Amino acid sequence: MSRSRKPNWLKMRPPSGREFTGIRETLREHDLNTVCEEANCPNLGECWSGRGGDGGGTATFMLMGHRCSRGCNFCDVETGGMEPLDPDEPANVASAVAEIGLDYVVLTSVDRDDLPDQGAGHFAETIREIKRRHPDTLVEVLIPDFQGERRLVRKIIEADPDVIAHNIETVERLQFPVRDRRAGYEQSLGVLAQVDRESETYTKSSIMLGHGEYDHEVYQTLADLREHGVDIVTLGQYLQPSRSHLEVRRYDHPDKYETWRRVAEDDLEFLYCASGPMVRSSYKAGELFVDAVLREGRSLEEARERARSAA
Fold first, then answer.
1. Count of CB atoms within 10 A of residue 13's CB?
2. Does 209 or 293 have the greater pLDDT score?
3. Which of 98, 92, 109 lies closest to 32 in space, CA to CA?
4. Where do the domains of the chain lie?
5. How far is the CA of 22 from the CAs of 42, 56, 101, 267, in angstroms?
6. Highest mean pLDDT: which of 80-84, 98-102, 211-215, 271-275?
7. CATH top class, domain 11-308
């Protein structure tokens, strides 16, 4: 399909509704950032207005500011001009979780290569603060690679989240120019493998399509993720945030994404695969995770216990 025209299946509805408005007001009150807004996620309205677990919609809190130390060529988050960490952020996030009524919360962050521990301690503190105040809340974290430093990844593991995600983003051949040169295919696989090796926490990763990858490369990436212990995978269409970002090389039809879902779940035996043009890493994360755990024959308490058992 021509890369110059956006197909009709990529049309988005503008966010609206009482739940959406309430979440936005709570975030403003606590001076919090979300990747939903900073990265112009196409599913912002749907996720914020949906249901996660038995509580409110899924919102992905972005920790440690709204400026990133890296410059990936697909991402719309601002780069450079790093600011000090907000020591009140962990408590503010935990308060917002209670006010919104989330049973499932997603935490991510910008990269903070400028900090001595790259922000791992701040990330872990936020997880612990949520768990301390809301022990029944399921917490998914989408972490940076921490430059592959195992001691920093271990800080996240020891904070006891229920799902640890780290995105491979694209196939091995296209890691650069898609990602910052400080990222890398083997480095990301190493982070995911460490989480699988050192914990019983569910692991998750994500692939963007549309950068010019071939089908055999996508399959190999899925196989590599599974081999390194990843339980959950998502696939979605890359959308160019601005003219200064990488161009979209191809738009795949929703049927192609359904094929990849079947390959991931049936052939490679991922716990679940969310796959579609508009899917992003945190897309309906709570709903899909809860459904998958129940299909696996576990209760939510068993899912929480699986995460706690490694702590």
1. 8
2. 209
3. 92
4. 11-308
5. 19, 11, 11, 41
6. 211-215
7. alpha beta
